[in-house]
């Protein structure tokens, strides 16, 4: 089985993830790409709602809220202290 790293939905608050894969298709994929969710960019988890859905992420200086159904299909590698 191939591992693509950690899904955004599994990252802890404060984590920074360098994106490497987006398994979303169609209009939502285009929207995310336009917002900066492209492989190589770094996303920071900045706030999780009490029930865990949605979660706020910061990318390219913008805060974006994603539902778990979307963030569970976006993968990357932990950066900084979280990577250890």
Automatic annotation (TrEMBL):
The keyword Iron applies. This is Ferrous iron transport protein A. Keywords: Iron. Pfam families: FeoA. SUPFAM superfamilies: C-terminal domain of transcriptional repressors. InterPro entries: Fe-transptr_FeoA-like, FeoA, FeoA_core_dom, Transcriptional_repressor_C. PANTHER family: FE(2+) TRANSPORT PROTEIN A. SMART domains: FeoA. GO terms for molecular function: transition metal ion binding. Coiled coil: none annotated. Residues 6-78 form the Ferrous iron transporter FeoA-like domain. It comes from the Bacteria.
